[in-house]
Structures
1.
Amino acid sequence: MDRPADDPQALAEACAAAMWADDRASRALGMALVSVTPGQAVLTMAVGPDMANGHGMCHGGYIFTLADSAFAFACNTYGKVTVAQSNSITYLRPGAVGDILTATAREVARAGRSGLYDVRVSREDGTPLAEFRGQSRSLDKDILPGG
């Protein structure tokens, strides 16, 4: 059997499993990790009534959190602990209570310890609700025991 470091997909999956086990925030919000590949991740989240803002729409903070979680899983697929250096979001349309949101993160560029990732958050029908861009910075720390 290949060690995860010898197989990029196995490494991405092992890193995601290790992160998911300790990601109480994403799990508490009902997120699900749908898929992960090197530099990419897909997460979903159902918008519950307690996620509505004063206008009855999905609070933008929840949309941002879903995008940020997908970003985190995408940039942590290479074995090193990687954190956000900066990020921004543009809201295109509101989400509604009852929507199932999907955040699809993809790597745009990675050089040295820095990375750039785009995340689209969309409804079940594919309608985009938000575009998120995150810059990452990897640390000198392994995600998996034994590196």
Note: The first strand starts at residue 32 and ends at 37.
2.
Amino acid sequence: MAIQSDKNAYWSANKRIIGISLVIWFLCSFGFGILLRPALSGIIVGGTDLGFWFAQQGSILVFLILIFAYAFRMNKLDREYGVDE
């Protein structure tokens, strides 16, 4: 029975990490790049406004950071539950 509760806790933590990552990615890509673009138009980054920057490059960079953060966090989680390689 303890093994089943460990599996449930592991997958619950995994789903929480994925959910947080998806929310961050959604906010950066859809939120800042599309919905909040007019509000961010006065802030200049790299010669263009911040909303355009998020739509073109920012969301991609955030996605790459999220990939590495997810891999780092999952390696830590795997070690915690003894399922690392």
Note: The beta strands are 44-45, 48-49.
3.
Amino acid sequence: MLKNLQSTFTLHNGKEIPYVGLGVYKMENPEETVQSVKTAIEYGYRSIDTASFYQNEESVGKAAKESSIARKDLFITSKVWNTDQGYDATLKAFEESLKKLDMEYLDLYLIHWPVKDKYKETWKALERIHDEGLVKSIGVSNFKQHHLEDLLSDSNEKPVLNQVELHPRLTQEGLRDYCTSQNIAVEAWSPIARGKLLNEPMLNHIAAKHGKTAAQVILRWHLQNNVIIIPKSVHVNRIKENGNLFDFELSLEDMNHINQLNMNERFGANPDDF
């Protein structure tokens, strides 16, 4: 039952991840990043999603330390970047991320993109750091079904989660169904399509009906599709708005209307060409 920002999704390894987290992509100003993360934690967020590529792991670590919440009650995710893929390079990159975050372990570590001829070796490195207890869960990001099938054919462990571009213009139903069949959680990056749908009349009509914003309607649509979300914002009012999703429910009709906005349109890169 989704009640608040601490409501969690249970991954196939039994670990729990909050349904709603704060994404920190493109948060480049260190002070602003620290402040945004601390604000989110104070407001009730427990999950923070960063990556070595974002170059703000130090700020995330600092905010976590300065917050009033114990490390064990936070869920911290980072990712290995494309140029660091391969077995040895990944082990080194992970060590670097831990050092920057100034943490003893991570809750989740992901392969950022499926780099051809590299991601299987990278995955073996993730399996190792998981076996060593340095990360509690391991997963992937931007993997299509064929990448997942390829990985699963040759791995000891299954990813707990696949973080992908997902929003009403790119509903990824086939991929979501496949992940569900494999017991792999789906997490949406860019859950509100970088704000490109906020003037969509139908979303605003649904929003008005519920006394909410179009962004909140989209985020609630994800949650009711059992998708984990990491909306990003540095603005206090937006961080709060994005977390205020638990006092309304979309009807089946609302959900169907939103599903119909799909155009298989990506605003980010295509994993096959990246």
Note: The first strand starts at residue 8 and ends at 10.
